[in-house]
Design a protein that fits this description.
The complex is a heterodimer. Chain A has helices at about 1-5, 10-15, 15-35, 35-40, 75-110, 110-125, 130-140, 145-170, 175-180, 185-225, 235-245, 250-280. Chain A is built from twelve helices and no strands. Chain A is mainly alpha-helical. Chain A is globular. In chain A, helix 5 packs antiparallel against helix 6. The longest helix of chain A is centred in the first third of the chain and has 37 residues, at about 75-110. Chain B is an all-alpha fold. The radius of gyration of chain B is 24 Å and the shape is globular. The chains are: A mainly alpha, B mainly alpha. Chains A and B meet through helix 6, helix 7, helix 10, helix 11 and helix 12 of A and helix 1, helix 6, helix 7, helix 11 and helix 12 of B.
Chain lengths: ~280, ~350
């Protein structure tokens, strides 16, 4: 760990204040999410708890960000909402990235009919605007967190196929690939040990940026009532509930909205920093 | 001219191919999901007979390839089937709701281009001064803020706290909607010559259109800036300067035109993304577009409505792409003569 902070890469990274802020935001959100039951002021307010005596309270010393219409602490629900958002982001990327990367490698390396089939299918998925495809998939499933993850995964993998395809095409004629071919390395070796490591910086950078965008899309789905279902706290659902009580009880929707923004901002700043640092296109 | 026509024909054919692919994708999605779509649509209370009738109506009792052929045959006749929710033809529903969404998206696109491009040009001209920083902050905030959060911020600030714009809807109570021609209230009001109605409709559209445009606005400015600076570094700009050509002529005639080419392509994508964003913004502003229809269709497992909505949006997306390609082809004649390179 100490070595990381002394290394040249960290030095260059820390020269860019924006990416350090991004990293700090992510660290904060991550810690809050992991230790949610310990750090949130009212862990009991996560479920179906009600306290009508203190419903719709404006932000105060007791409830820092106010309470919702049935008296639950909004700060507590935001902290637990981060858990859902992060889980969605991680699961979607863990599913979408390997699929997308593998297809991109295959299409880019082998070319020919395989390339035509994979890239035409990718085109079709990319021809439906992002959120709309997720909505279409959810149209055939029951709305809940798991299915929202599946829907976002379905719309997300083609972007990685396209990225890795372009990268693979640009390195497949390089000397080290030809050398590996000449000495008779297996196709798997060439794909995963020669080409993939060259795509890794781009993939990692894109994943950092996408973590934010997946969280954004996930909150959009639950905002429409098609993602996480109550009483599980979710930032998008909270904004949707609060929107009914504008303008008098503005804190019910504004703070969860800011929380989504905060989270996405962190990943975006870090991703931008990585892009400059690793000098990659995504 | 012939080069241009064959370019257009090639693009249209490719788009048709993709649309065909989308129809297969949607069809497969609708059929591979576990469970009987007819049973899911009708709910557990429906009788077996009702389910059987619906299965027959949707051709669910035939083998898959036959189902698809039937689906395409009806599609070619402009028949998307009945909506199980509204009990009307899906095409009728789409004709009612899509224009409102389209109006909002076009207004958002207009804001994005009319504010984003000039801001980008200013940012390139005043590098690292305030227009540049404004573009930078706007593009970052635009990208990381969900459009429904923009919508709520704008409503609170400019409709409730400072009363500049109406909170929701398309027209004030004092106005009678103009005769329906295109379904877009602003356009219909203009066609009917009703200026007051037109102004009120625009007034209602400002906040939702801005909420929609924010994501693309800063990005458009940043992109224009980067591409302008890129062309400013080219030798032919240096030569124009050496000839003593006016700086404004250089900016608009020599630097902007090539800078527009990569920008436009991204703007097309942004405009398409607004179709997704519109679902969120409409929900906040109670805008009578596709959002409520589509969400209801999804919650009620209304197969035909979901398929129809997705198809029309994909078709619109492809149309935007073709238009963008045509404009790019007009700006940059080199592209027209190049064979589709992959």
């Amino acid at each position: 760990m100490v070595q990381v902070f002394r290394s040249r890469a960290w030095f260059r990274f820390s020269r860019n204040p924006l990416s350090v802020i991004g990293l700090a935001i992510i660290a904060l959100v991550l810690l809050l999410a992991v230790f949610a039951p310990l750090v949130s002021p009212y862990p009991a307010h996560v479920g179906t708890f009600t306290n009508f005596g203190e419903a719709s309270q404006a932000p105060s010393g007791k409830y820092l960000l106010g309470t919702d219409t049935i008296g639950r602490d909004i700060l507590t629900r935001i902290i637990f909402g981060f858990r859902v958002s992060l889980a969605l982001g991680v699961v979607v990327l863990l599913l979408a990235v390997p699929i997308g990367v593998l297809l991109g490698l295959l299409a880019g390396y082998f070319g020919g009919r395989l390339e035509a089939v994979i890239m035409r299918i990718t085109d079709v998925f990319l021809a439906v605007p992002p959120l709309v495809l997720a909505l279409a998939v959810l149209g055939f499933l029951q709305p809940n967190l798991f299915n929202a993850m599946m829907a976002v995964t379905v719309m997300w993998w083609p972007w990685y196929t396209r990225l890795v395809y372009n990268l693979t095409r640009s390195v497949r004629t390089e000397g080290f690939v030809t050398a590996a071919e000449v000495i008779g390395a297996s196709k798997a070796h060439i794909l995963f040990r020669e080409i993939l490591p060259n795509c890794a910086p781009s993939i990692l950078t894109k994943m950092t940026l996408d973590m934010g965008f997946v969280i954004l899309i996930g909150s959009s789905l639950s905002f429409l009532g098609l993602g996480v279902q109550p009483p599980t706290p979710d930032l998008g659902t909270m904004v949707a509930d609060g929107a009914k009580y504008l303008p008098d009880q503005w804190w019910i929707s504004v703070f969860p909205g800011l929380a989504v923004l905060f989270c996405v901002l962190g990943f975006n700043l870090l991703g931008d920093g990585l892009r400059d640092l690793l000098d990659v296109e995504v | 001219m012939t080069a241009f026509l064959s370019y257009l024909a090639r693009r249209l054919l490719a788009a048709l191919g993709v649309l065909f692919g989308v129809s297969i994708l949607i069809f497969v999605l609708a059929r591979v999901i576990p469970g009987d779509p007819a049973r899911i649509a009708l709910g557990p209370m429906a009788s077996q007979e009702q389910v059987e009738n619906l299965r027959e109506e949707l051709y669910l009792d035939r083998p898959l390839p036959l189902q698809y052929v039937e689906f395409v045959r009806r599609l070619a006749q402009g028949d998307l089937g009945m909506s199980l929710y509204t009990r009307r033809e899906v095409t009728t529903d789409l004709a009612e709701f899509f224009p409102a969404t389209l109006e909002l998206v076009l207004a958002g696109g207009l804001i994005m281009v009319l504010l984003g491009l000039p801001l980008g040009i200013l940012a390139a001209y005043y590098r690292n001064r305030w227009p540049d920083n404004l573009a930078r902050v706007l593009s970052l905030l635009g990208v990381v803020t969900p459009s429904f959060v923009w919508a709520i911020f704008l409503i609170l600030l400019l409709a409730y706290w400072v009363i500049l714009f109406p909170v929701a809807g398309r027209l004030g109570d004092a106005f009678v909607p103009p005769p329906r021609v295109t379904g877009m209230v602003t356009v219909d009001a203009l066609l009917a010559g009703q200026w007051a109605t037109f102004r009120d409709a625009v007034h209602h559209m400002v906040l939702p259109a801005f909420a929609l445009a924010m994501a693309g606005l800063g990005q458009a400015a940043r992109l224009t800036r980067a591409n302008m600076l890129d062309t400013y570094g080219k030798p032919y700009i240096e030569m124009a300067r050496a000839y003593g050509i006016r700086e404004s002529t250089i900016a608009f005639k020599y630097a902007l035109r090539p800078a527009m080419i990569p920008t436009l392509t991204i703007l097309g994508l942004d405009l398409a993304a607004m179709l997704g964003g519109a679902f969120l913004v409409e929900a906040v502003f109670n805008w009578p577009g596709m959002a409520r229809y589509a969400v209801q269709a999804i919650l009620r497992k209304d197969l035909n409505a979901i398929v129809g909505t997705t198809l029309i949006i994909a078709a619109f997306f492809l149309l935007i792409n073709i238009l963008v390609d045509l404009i790019v082809g007009y700006i940059n004649p080199r592209i027209r003569f190049r064979r589709e390179a992959r």
